Amino acid sequence: MRSFTILLTSIFLITAMIFVGCGNKQEELTETEQTEYLEKGQDLATETQKVLGSNLMKAINEGGPINALEFCNIQAYPLTDSMATALKAHITRVTDKPRNQANIDNKDELTYIASFKEKLGAGEQVSPDISVMDGKVTGYYPIITNQMCMQCHGSENDQINEETLAKIKELYPNDQATGYGAGELRGIWVVEMDRE
Questions:
Q1: pTM, entire model
Q2: Buried-most residue among 20, 56, 149, 152 (CB within 10 A)?
């Protein structure tokens, strides 16, 4: 009987922890703090985007979209990680339509992606957003496609040439990252910073 009581008590405590959120606490920022963290996160995301973009352009100039795909397949993830280390923040790119499965979004990130897509679809300006939880400030920054992106992320029928499409299918057999148009949300930068 005692072990049954202990079991019931344990189940109750575990259930209570789940409903309480296991101690996760949504925190508030002052307006000044919010602006400062949004700007800091934007700077970190922009710096990382610049490094990736310049390396991507170099790969395209040296060997076209095929070379760019090979660069992304091998170097994009480690390069993002090294930038995160250098900038002393946790920086990732995520999307709801991943090419690299390591870039798939989680439930919270999908909420921001859906919100950004809805705003873009309504013709509204898309602005970064921020959340604070357990002493961590996380910024969400939209990644919008441009014409250059169409070489690897556009329409399979007319924007991506056959050779490039074959390489995409070879390197990324589960690819979902085609069919975009310029000016669409490709994904988001997620920048996690310690709250000072």
A1: 0.82
A2: 152
CA nearest neighbour of 48 among 189, 194, 193, 195: 189
**Among candidate residues 50, 64, 69, 77, the one with its CA nearest the CA of residue 172:** 69
DSSP label at residue 147 = G
What percentage of the chain's residues is helix, strand, coil (to nearest 5)?
55, 15, 25
The CB density around residue 81, as the number of other CB atoms within 10 Å, is 13
Check whether 82 has a pLDDT greater than 90: no
- What the block records as the tokens of 193 is 């910073």
- Residue in this structure with the two tokens 């990130």, named with its chain if needed: 109
Domain boundaries, the chain: 28-194
The pLDDT assigned to 23 comes to 45
Q: Give pLDDT, residue 86.
A: 83
Spatial neighbors of 63 by CB under 8 A, at least 6 apart, are 70
